[in-house]
Design goal:
Layout (H helix, E strand, L loop, with lengths): L2 E2 L5 E2 L16 H13 L3 H19 L7 H11 L9 H14 L11 E5 L11 E3 L2 E5 H19 L3 H6 L6 E2 L2 E2 L3 E2 L3 E2 L1
Parallel strand pairs: 3-5
Antiparallel strand pairs: 1-2, 4-5, 6-9, 7-8
Length: 191
């Protein structure tokens, strides 16, 4: 036993599973792979939240100072995703991102759409995607998330030679199987 959680459950430690990482892959692949694993595990909320942060990560990588801002997020969306979600503008997507990440909500009274709805897979395999229903915009969570992931992969190929991306990439959060000297060495970390 390693402890007791606040509701009285016993906390233990699972045996660590070794993770294989292609050392030659783009560091962003770690994040994209986590999103895909979340979808496969039916962790749709997690996948949507992380996917909504991807334009921020890409915009930060492109920037001179390695930082993002609302206008940079929207510009990245316009350049890489604008044609993918017919009704969704860059400003709408940024509002969704802010609402989900900072407030845990998908309602936006006074905006183009009062509510955003994400449907999840059903046993009947019904897919509803990119629909306006009254004052709500509806997406299939899997298709929405995969569309953003695919856009990031396209962007990664196109921006590989960008000097800002090359300069900012080492600072991107990533899985580091051997640690990160001089902080922690010899054990896997996320840093």
């Amino acid at each position: 036993m390693f402890g007791i959680c606040w509701i009285g459950c016993v906390l233990g430690r699972k045996k660590a599973r070794r993770r294989t990482v292609d050392q030659n892959s783009h560091p962003m692949e770690t994040v994209l792979g986590e999103i895909e694993r979340a979808l496969n595990a039916e962790l749709y909320y997690l996948a949507v939240v992380l996917a909504l942060t991807l334009p921020d990560m890409c915009a930060a990588l492109e920037s001179d100072d390695g930082r993002t801002a609302p206008d940079k997020y929207k510009a990245w969306y316009d350049a890489n995703l604008a044609g993918e979600f017919g009704w969704l503008t860059a400003a709408d997507c940024y509002s969704i991102r802010c609402g989900v990440v900072h407030q845990g909500r998908l309602g936006f009274p006074g905006k183009q759409f009062a509510r955003i709805i994400f449907s999840v897979p059903t046993p009947q395999r019904n897919i509803f995607h990119n629909n306006v229903i009254n004052d709500a915009l509806q997406f299939d969570a899997v298709l929405f998330t995969r569309t953003i992931v695919n856009a990031v992969r396209r962007w990664m190929r196109l921006s590989a030679a960008n000097p800002n991306v090359q300069a900012n990439l080492p600072n991107l959060i990533q899985y580091r199987p051997q640690g990160w000297a001089p902080y922690i060495v010899g054990t896997p970390i996320i840093a």
